[in-house]
Amino acid sequence: MKLTFATNDYLLTWNLLFGPAISEESFRFREKLWRTYRKQYNALQNENKLMLQDIKNFIPDDDTVYNFVFESPLFENIKKAVEKHRNYLLKVWDENKKKVSSYLKDIVRLSYDNYRILVLHPDMDTVYYDIENSERNIAWGRKNDTKSELGTLTALVYAITKYQVGPNYKEYKEIVQAVLELAIHNELYTRLSGVSNYLSGDPSLTFLKKQIYPYWLMYLGADQEKMTSYMMRDKIAFDIEHYPIEANLKKLDLKGFIEFCIRNQKHILRINQLEII
């Protein structure tokens, strides 16, 4: 997996105009701009989708609003902050990419495409992409990025892996989210940090993840003895005798495991005797 970290003035401007206001100054700026160029401003509302489809060649039909923004002192300051954030994300990735790539080969087992991370101001606090778009562009700027390098890294890999898995399981999005959490926020984070992270994540997925967990360990290649070690590490308990080892799970990739969970959900989700130690 190769990641490039770039900035784009048009995408940055679009998020300044339509995303959450990052300051009182930015709010007043875009309010004044909207009053002055209301028609042109409103016409830009969906242009971020066009940008993600072909960011290098994007040219607006009307650049009146963009040029006004580009020439402002506010935009100049925002660009400096964004470039600083781009360098931060690049540093975090460069320092960890070898370990991450190695762990993903074992955990996810998918061949990753190359991605372009289009960096936004962190106070814009947004991540988005068009999952059906082959350009592999991800708009990225999160407030939490500077709080934890490891948290930033796993959040980034989570978004990319979700993109890589694709939009083919829309009817089963909770199962997909649960498996992605197990893979990235739980197992990858645990291997990177050396401390189990299995009790963290979206609270609404906790019970579903606990039900999938025994099969997840089989997917990771655990036999009954190893399952006991995993349970002690992760502080999640289940009765091993109720779960015969399904050896074929360790031969699947992450998409295959998601499909296994979807096919067998009636069997997996009927079990409700799991406890947190």
Question: Care to describe what's here?
Answer:
This protein is α/β, with parallel strands linked by helices and 277 residues long. Helices cover 56% and strands 8% of the residues. The chain has helices spanning 9-18, 24-36, 38-42, 47-53, 64-70, 73-107, 149-165, 173-193, 206-219, 224-234, 254-263, 265-268, and strands at 3-6, 115-119, 126-128, 137-141, 236-237, 275-276. A four-stranded mixed sheet has the order 1-2-4-3, with helices on one face. Strands 5-6 form a two-stranded antiparallel ribbon. A hairpin with an 8-residue loop joins strand 3 (126-128) and strand 4 (137-141). The longest helix is centred in the first third of the chain and has 35 residues, at 73-107. The two termini are 37 Å apart.
Number of strand segments: 6
Structural class of the helices, strands and pairings?
alpha/beta
| SS strand fraction | 5-15%
Largest sheet: 4 strands, mixed
Straight-line N-to-C gap = 37 Å
Instruction: Indicate the radius of gyration in whole angstroms.
Output: 22 Å
The number of helical elements comes to 12
Order of helices and strands: EHHHHHHEEEHHHHEHHE
Task: Spell out the blueprint of helices and strands.
Elements: E1 3-6, H1 9-18, H2 24-36, H3 38-42, H4 47-53, H5 64-70, H6 73-107, E2 115-119, E3 126-128, E4 137-141, H7 149-165, H8 173-193, H9 206-219, H10 224-234, E5 236-237, H11 254-263, H12 265-268, E6 275-276
Helix pairs in contact: 6-7, 6-8, 7-8, 8-9, 8-11
In summary, what is this structure?
The chain is of the alpha/beta class and 277 residues long. 56% of the residues lie in helices and 8% in strands.
